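Feature request, filed as a ticket because there's no other form

It would be nice if the structure record came with a short human-readable summary line next to the tokens. Right now we just get the raw output. Example of a typical job, pasted below so the devs can see what we mean:
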Amino acid sequence: MSRSLLVSTALAVAAICGSGFVPGGSGTRVAVAQDSVLTELYGEGVHAYHAHDLIRAYDLFTRAIDGGLNDPRAYYFRGLTAISTGRDHEAEEDFRAGAAIEARNGAGGSVGRALTRVQGSERMMIEKARTEGRLSAQAEMAADAARRYSGQQAAEAEVLRAPPSPRPRPAMPGVRPLPVPGPGAPSPFDNDSAAGQPTVQAKDALPDPMDDPFADDGAPAPAAGNAPAAMDATDPFGSGAAPAGNDPFATPPAGGAPAADPFADPFGS
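Raw output as currently delivered:
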């Protein structure tokens, strides 16, 4: 089958798919068949471009793009065809459109392989558009992230500004809740003497600190007749006055009687 006949068949299939009549098919198979037809149109246009059949190549690329082919390579090659025919402004628009699709879909590997034979100033124009497309996509993603973050902050601030709503206490089965006193209800901590002057119970916090805390107030006092005799202040042992003869340090009597010998044997016969 020649390539022209193949392209004609693909166009017929595309027309049938566009009309929605696919016997025994589903929506998924319709989309796959349509994509294959558009891809075939793109491939036929690439062959026509490299064969220097520029008018036919431009027509095939345009039909593929208008049919819904979302492939950056179709835009790049249509732009190259436009440059070859002296339409530089249209080429720049196609390069920017293809770069935007590539930055959004990320088809860098297939684009690099398709543009291997394209060199010189045309390749430099395409690479410039691709770089600008990537930068524009990154800036758009950063702006979207900033908008989402600012929206989240605004929602959090709105929640914090709103006063909390009181939640009712959960009812416990078998337990009767205590009544809540009103504003004028008496309190068990109120002072009874708040209406008058306060009274002082005692001026001294520790009365009679010198009293014996261990004294038994209920014990009877001793009788007067049973009081113990007073002890001699001079004799701590209370044994009375010692005889003069037994005191070796006593002063001799005035009558001249000899003093007792302090070294005499007190047990002598």
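Something like this underneath would help us a lot:
Confidence is low (pLDDT under 50) at residues 12-24.
The chain has seven helices and no strands.
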